[in-house]
């Protein structure tokens, strides 16, 4: 209980400082390109252009259509990334003002030779909890962005956890965290269900939680255990949804060799976001290596 009092005290300090309450691989991408190619190849070249010409000219056009192979450049090779979530998605704390880990993910896809243009839609809002995401999913603009996404990246849960600390700082117990963890699981399940209503096939990467208190109170192992349990809940929910992946980041902020937090001691700084981005890219590579094209088609 004494240790939880320390967490509560730090929580109050952080609240006053940051106002928390205000807050893939070639097979997959090429498959997306194939879908675009098939849909576009349905329209015939030179359709009706020589409609009134002679039979000889018409036969010539037919021969051209049969023999000419349309180059890959003819098709849309753009790729749409949508980031949806809280302040981590927004990039709060990144002193470079480049959007935190989102710019790193964009660079990863831009390096692919089969993609000409990578667009980013950042739907991160500071302070958002799972209930906020559910409300925002009623917005037609959010729905449209998710529907058009080739890959979706999400962050959520940190503010849900902080809400427990803020509202119960005089009586923090494991049982209280366990109870709220169950409610969090229900809301997260609803969020993913709603996202899938608007996009039932694109891959979803959900970034886990980390313990922002570790820097000041390394001896409080209980808080690390709470974060671990909440991350385990996130994983269990994701297991119910095909073509989704969990990105662990908790270990990044345990015994780091350098400071990884912003001045508010709650959000990552530029270096912290860089390491989160590396973990996401590693998960993208790992997930693609373990998922065959046939499996992805079956999931769709």
From TrEMBL:
Q: What InterPro entries does this protein's entry cite?
A: Ester_Hydrolysis_Enzymes, SGNH_hydro, SGNH_hydro_sf
Tell me the ranges covered by the SGNH hydrolase-type esterase domain, including all copies: 83-275
Question: What residue stretch is flagged as signal peptide?
Answer: 1-21
Q: Does the keyword rRNA processing apply?
A: no
Pfam families found in the cross-reference section: Lipase_GDSL_2 (PF13472)
**What UniProt keywords are attached to this protein's entry?**
Signal
Can the keyword Repressor be found in this entry's annotation? no
- List the protein's name: SGNH hydrolase-type esterase domain-containing protein
Give the originating organism.
Answer: Sutcliffiella horikoshii
Recall the taxonomic lineage recorded for the source organism. Answer: Bacteria, Bacillati, Bacillota, Bacilli, Bacillales
């Amino acid at each position: 209980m004494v240790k939880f009092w320390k967490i509560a005290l730090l929580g109050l300090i952080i609240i006053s400082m940051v106002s928390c309450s205000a807050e893939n691989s070639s097979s997959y991408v090429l498959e997306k390109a194939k879908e675009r190619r098939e849909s576009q190849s349905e329209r015939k070249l030179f359709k009706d252009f020589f409609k009134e010409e002679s039979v000889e000219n018409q036969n010539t056009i037919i021969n051209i259509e049969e023999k000419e192979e349309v180059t890959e450049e003819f098709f849309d090779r753009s790729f749409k990334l949508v980031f949806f979530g809280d302040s981590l998605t927004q990039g709060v704390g990144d002193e470079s003002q480049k959007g935190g880990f989102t710019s790193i993910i964009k660079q990863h896809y831009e390096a692919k030779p089969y993609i000409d243009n990578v667009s980013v839609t950042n739907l991160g809002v500071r302070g958002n909890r799972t209930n906020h995401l559910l409300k925002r999913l009623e917005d037609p603009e959010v729905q449209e962005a998710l529907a058009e996404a080739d890959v979706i990246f999400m962050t959520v849960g940190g503010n849900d956890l902080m809400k427990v600390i803020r509202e119960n700082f005089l009586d923090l117990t494991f049982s209280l965290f366990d109870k709220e963890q169950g409610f969090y699981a229900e809301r997260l399940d609803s969020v993913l269900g709603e996202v899938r209503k608007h996009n039932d096939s694109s891959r979803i990467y959900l970034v886990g939680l980390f313990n922002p208190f570790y820097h000041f109170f390394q001896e409080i192992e209980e808080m690390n255990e709470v974060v671990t349990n909440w991350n385990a809940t996130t994983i269990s929910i994701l297991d119910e949804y095909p073509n989704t992946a969990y990105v662990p980041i908790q270990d990044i902020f345990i015994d780091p060799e350098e400071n990884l937090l912003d001045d508010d001691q709650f959000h990552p700084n530029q270096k912290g976001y860089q390491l989160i981005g590396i973990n996401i890219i590693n998960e993208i590579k790992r997930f693609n290596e373990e998922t065959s094209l046939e499996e992805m088609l079956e999931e769709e």
